[in-house]
Design brief:
The protein contains no helices and eleven strands. The model has no long low-confidence stretch (mean pLDDT 95).
Length: 127
């Protein structure tokens, strides 16, 4: 079983930056794509960014393109989400997730494709 632990959330002013980290344990981290999702207050959980097992392919939600960057360090079993130019609408609980399948060729953005989830970390952007 895989365990995912997020860190790095907090309160930041609009225009500021945060870097989220997600460290995995329990299985071969480098074989699996990783994703970041978020759940704004009163809304459904939504896709933010994903990175394939090798780090060579990424995908982003339109709302974060050009502002957020996903990366991974397989030696450290960690995936990162660098968030710049933050907006109040980025306020949400951010979750990292691991793909259900190994070495998926195409990065997936669907919530149901991810089988393991962290506990989430709160990001609050003040105006």
């Amino acid at each position: 079983q895989v365990q995912l632990v997020e860190s790095g959330g907090g309160l930041v002013q609009a225009g500021g930056s945060l870097r989220l980290s997600c460290t995995a344990s329990g299985r071969s981290f480098s074989r699996y794509a990783m994703g970041w999702f978020r759940q704004p207050p009163g809304k459904e959980r939504e896709f933010v960014a994903a990175i394939n097992w090798s780090g060579g392919s990424t995908d982003y939600a339109d709302s974060v393109k050009g502002r957020f960057t996903i990366s991974r360090d397989n030696a450290k079993n960690t995936v990162y989400l660098e968030m710049n130019s933050l907006k109040p609408e980025d306020t949400a609980i951010y979750y990292c997730a691991a793909d259900r399948l190994q070495r998926r060729v195409v990065v997936t953005t669907t919530l149901q494709s991810y089988g393991y989830w962290g506990q989430g970390t709160q990001v609050t952007v003040s105006s």
